[in-house]
Amino acid sequence: MVSPRKFVWPVLLVLAAVIAAGWWFQRDRQPQQNVLTVTVERGGLEDLVTATGVLQPRDYVDVGAQVSGQLKLLHVEVGSQVKEGDLLAEIDATLYLARVDAIRAQLRNQKAQLMEREAQLTLAEIQYRRQQNLLREEATSRETAQIAEATLRSAKAQVEAISAQIEQTDSTLRAEETNLEYARIYAPMNGTIVSIEARQGQTLNVNQQAPVLMRIADLSAMTVEAQVSEADISKLTPGQPVYFTTLGNQQRRWESHLDRVEPTPVVENNVVLYNAVFDVPNPEGRLMTQMTAQVFFVNAKTEDALLIPVTALNRRGLTTTVQVLGSDGEIEQRNVTVGVSNRVQVEILDGLEEGDQVVSSSRGDGGAKSSSGSSRRMVGMRL
Fold first, then answer.
1. Do 262 and 274 form a contact (C-beta atoms < 8 A)?
2. Are the CB atoms for 332 and 326 separated by under 8 Å?
3. Using 50, 70 and 90 to split pLDDT, how confident is the model at 176?
4. How many Cβ atoms are within 10 Å of 358's Cβ, its own excluded?
5. pTM of the model
6. Cα→Cα distances 217→85, 200, 249, 260, 277, Å
7. How is domain 50-58+218-300 classified at the architecture level of CATH?
8. Residues 6+ apart with CB under 8 A from 351
9. In what order do the strands lie in the sheet with 87-91?
10. Is 199 helix (H, G, I), strand (E, B) or coil?
11. CA neighbor of 71 nearest in space, from 193, 203, 186
């Protein structure tokens, strides 16, 4: 009698083969269950270089003191609007006023001496002419005539000497009057007081270092200094479009164009950075000094373009392909031409149409494999 166990093993093997064949057939019939797809849609795309910048007034002046003394009065405060010629501060001018008064008195004395010397010159000229007339009539000695001539020359020299002293004193007076004027400090330009460094009652000493009292800035136009890494600096050119946002209002874009890239780098923590500088109008005064700006330099820009994720591209040499899921569930390879690209999306110029289903990555636990064979994690994105 044949044992029933001999028939069980063949039956189990047949069932296992049927199940494996069914699974394999089902996998080939429904490949879309093993991949993630995105729909080709239209939109805008920008290729950007990002940097962090600081806002500064485009035009500003550090107002300092040109004479020493005690800061007697401050007529402004931070935030005050001033016009050119407005009085900003006063330094105690007692000493400078005394010097001016003393030199003016000295000048008056010298002018009086000049009048005396001129009178003596006139007398010497009269005596010289008299002696010359008497000498021609032989009514005086030649020695007396020579004394009269020497006296005349001495009188002329004394007039010249006192005249030179008057010029020197007059020059000194102008200098002291200028110092007296410097004791009153006026605004050199229209603008806003953005900082005050000195305090009323403080003693200023210009002999050691020119003291800065305050800064006046024209806030109607601001300058942005953005620090760009050396890896991205080659992508920037003067005239390039740029926009930025501030921490206080990240929804508003401030647009401008790149003015220049400063050639001297700034090294911070062994990182080489270059200052990219541009100006932006500020008619409403919403931009303030030392604000932080998130800056975006636009390398390339496109509107109403066909977009897909960068992860959907397969590059082999000069050929770029994508996998497209057809309506019959089959996957086909298509050659595409790409345009503007950033790290997330890419513009498709040719090879796809709006609404196509493009394979972004497979659903395996290990993630999708790029054309180079390196694994990458799928980021759930739908365009």
1. yes
2. yes
3. very high
4. 24
5. 0.67
6. 15, 21, 23, 22, 18
7. Beta Barrel (2.40)
8. 322, 334, 335, 336, 337
9. 184-186, 87-91, 69-74, 203-204
10. coil
11. 203
